[in-house]
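Backbone shape codes:
===
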Amino acid sequence: MPWAVAERLKVRLLSAGVCPPFLTYGALSSQGVFRFVISSEHSRRRLSEVVSVLSESGPLTG
């Protein structure tokens, strides 16, 4: 995911109370990924909220 797209998504996630780290691999990587960690402590409602934020964000391309 390009940095500009990641920044827009990060704002939306943070406003929903979600804070996944954004990771890049390789020293010269111009793209990265969000890492979401899901555990048994997360409710279905909370997971649905995260899915809603992601789906409302539209296409995740530059």
Q: What stands out?
A: The mean pLDDT is 87. The CA atoms of residues 16 and 49 lie 8 Å apart.
